[in-house]
Design goal:
This protein is α/β, with parallel strands linked by helices and 387 residues long. It has 17 helices and nine strands.
């Protein structure tokens, strides 16, 4: 059988076939439409296969649920961990990978905007909440925990990604509520590392970042290129390690980065910074410069999503610094937090506007999203003024 290149092009639905389709009433029609979207490159084959699997699990479920599942799955390919139903209804076609304007290859095609133009967001949420494929985020009953989709407010998640987000949220909240004890001579140590403050001098944000980081088991040092993130974290490590060394119980500090290239770059930078620290040689020796990748730190197991270190086998460390944290996706951050001992400090370095994660979930960006509009509490401001 001879086939030409034209035989490999997407087959379009004839106009009369489009008119006969009822994708929001008949699941088979929706699956046919999704197949056409895949052929056009608007949807991934994985997304359509996922919907077909859900249809097998619940053949009588409303096609609106299946369409939402397809769009939610497709969002993962664009780095988004959920589908905002109300935002999707504002610009439905943006939920797909549509071709450039004027590309008419494949003929007429039903678009999400044509399907969802008259749909109300509250009604869509109501349909999803009634589905046997969807669990409500607030529902803790055992019989809904294995449902593949989770509805949290107006956002629809694949269960795995909702679980990752919850694990991260709970872990960080626990760390932020546990206030660490700061050195009694914090002001003296800060002065030794940064020099004495001068009247009328501009605020030394690196110094304030170090001071704040001593109070919490979780902190973020963020800023653009050249803002001194590495300098800040090296002085922070000296600030934390000095009293521990003097007490004869040096901290176990580990440094990590998402990629080998980032690890090598940080290794060189840390080594240079440590040599210039105004601390004793004994303290310098206890500040490591060797940086490993996050995968190697956790102990990746080839062919699986699992690691040697996890909630049941924690990492043997007291302080962990992760550079280029903007590249850490949702799943990796959840695994990293699971493997951290309860007492350990976590410091994230990075620029939220650069080097986004390849997989779904811009964790650093989400954590920093509201920081610029935030402010220090009166108690924190008073404490900072004292140091």
């Amino acid at each position: 059988m001879n086939r030409s290149f034209a035989d490999l092009l997407p087959t379009s639905l004839a106009a009369e076939s489009l008119a006969d389709l009822a994708p929001l009433s008949r699941a088979d029609d929706l699956l046919l439409l999704l197949t056409r979207w895949v052929e056009r490159g608007w949807l991934r084959a994985l997304d359509k296969a996922f919907v077909a699997f859900l249809h097998e699990l619940a053949p009588e479920d409303d096609p609106l649920v299946l369409l939402a599942a397809a769009l939610t799955s497709h969002q993962l390919g664009h780095g988004h961990v959920c589908l905002d139903l109300f935002e999707t209804l504002k610009e439905p076609d943006f939920a797909l990978s549509l071709p450039p304007e004027g590309d008419v290859q494949g003929g007429a095609m039903l678009l999400p905007s044509q399907l969802l133009g008259s749909l109300d967001g509250a009604h869509w949420c109501k349909v999803l909440a009634a589905s046997n494929l969807v669990a409500l985020a607030a529902d803790s009953r055992d019989n809904v925990r294995d449902r593949p989709l989770v509805l949290s407010g107006k956002r629809l998640y694949l269960r795995r990604y909702w679980a990752y987000e919850r694990r991260i949220d709970l872990s960080l909240r626990e760390r932020l509520t546990e206030h660490e004890s700061t050195p009694n001579d914090l002001l003296h140590r800060l002065t030794g590392l940064f020099g004495p403050a001068r009247p009328g001098e501009v605020i030394d944000w690196q110094k304030l970042a170090c001071a704040l980081a001593t109070r919490s088991a979780f902190s973020i040092v963020t800023g653009g290129p050249g803002t001194g993130k590495t300098t800040t974290v090296v002085r922070l490590l000296a600030l934390l390690q000095a009293p521990a060394v003097e007490a004869g119980m040096p901290l176990r500090i580990r440094l990590a980065a998402p990629t080998g290239k980032a690890a090598a770059r940080l290794t060189e930078s840390i080594s240079q910074q440590v040599r210039t620290l105004k601390v004793s040689e004994e303290i310098r020796e206890k500040i490591p410069s060797d940086v490993t990748t996050v995968h190697r730190l956790l102990g990746s197991r080839p062919g699986t999503r699992h690691f040697r270190h996890h909630a049941g086998n924690r990492l043997p460390l007291d302080v962990l610094v992760v550079d280029e944290a903007s590249m850490i996706d949702l799943e990796m951050m959840a695994n990293l937090l699971d493997a951290l001992p309860a007492h350990a400090r976590l410091v994230l370095l990075g620029d939220k506007d650069q080097l986004a994660s390849v997989e779904a979930g811009a964790v650093l960006g989400d954590l920093c999203r509201d920081a610029e509009a935030g402010w220090y509490s009166p108690q924190t401001r008073q404490w900072l003024e004292a140091v």
